[in-house]
Amino acid sequence: MAEAFIVGAVRTPVGTKKGALAGVHPAELGAHVLKETVARTGVPPAAVEDVIMGCVSQVGPQALDIARTAWLSAGLPESTPGVTIDRQCGSSQQAVHFAAQGVLSGTQDLVLASGVENMGMVPMGANAKFAIDEGLPLFGDGWTDRYGTQEISQFRGAQLMCEKWGYKRDDLERFALESHRRAGAARDAGRFDTEIAPIAGVEQDEGVRPDTTLEKMAELQPIREGWELTAAVASQVSVGAGAVLIASERAVAEHGLTPLARVVQLSLVGDDPVYMLTAPIPATRTALEKSGLGIGDIDVTEINEAFAPVPLAWLDELGADPETVNPNGGAIALGHPLGATGSVLMTKLVHELHRTGGRYGLQTMCEGGGQANVTIIERV
């Protein structure tokens, strides 16, 4: 049976929307991690058969197949093609899935899965703005017949989760505070140093605020009157890129590569698109069942902190040990550069497994449309 291995995983620092990375062209961000991954692994650039890059807002500087333009911007061979994909926030985790599936099928040996998003340069929703400006509906008649004209947004989905699971603002803020504490401790201990490829003079993630307090969070106004949500319990608007190189056994042997992890399970599940953010729960159950593993077998989990109720509900439903979940903080503290986050989380997961000596790692993310990817890997 074919195997797929992760042989390289690199990310930029995650920048804030007005920070030092906000002025860096998205293609240059993507080029940086692609070039750095090739250099660190020592793989011949021409041996890379495809570049699959996640990017959500494919407009303006992020248009025109940024996977291809990023690869060429890096000065890498014209013979390697690139394709850009959008599975909303899980875009570059899906890139990892597609890359691994190409290797597992036996049709490819070396594929770069990556992601990029500069939310300081291309605002979230910029690709939907055309329809709004032109007075065109974002959803067709079939959708309206099925779900009506009710509000469909990540913000409402997060509030609906609070109502369903009974989370109050204090629950969310305590979780957010711990995310910042963990991220600050990890940064100060140098845990991210080996996975980050500095760029534009930035060496560390910009959004971490380990000095924040519950008192400071309490001063913020809710996103909407009567809601539990504030900006403090949501992921940060961010800038960043990541890349993960997937290789076959043949490529490992031919190029003398060092496997970091083996791909164990690739799962994808849809759930209620109105709640939107709940799919990581059934997707994780599916992945565990198909892999024959239990939640207790997972040594490290990276679940995207789009909003605090997402990981809180996942923890309550799956019964995982909270100490193993986002041990170095999550997107509330470190940021969420949309199309890049999947590759950033996978990079964090691989490096944390090696740092701690854990065996199995699990990554999952909520995604627009009520979807979720789950990837299980085994440290090699």
From TrEMBL:
Keywords: Acyltransferase, Transferase. Pfam families: Thiolase_C, Thiolase_N. Gene3D superfamilies: 3.40.47.10. The active site is at C89 (acyl-thioester intermediate), H336 (proton acceptor), C366 (proton acceptor). Residues 257-379 form the Thiolase C-terminal domain. SUPFAM superfamilies: Thiolase-like. Residues 5-249 form the Thiolase N-terminal domain. GO terms for molecular function: acyltransferase activity, transferring groups other than amino-acyl groups. It comes from the Bacteria. Belongs to the thiolase-like superfamily. Thiolase family. This is Acetyl-CoA C-acetyltransferase.
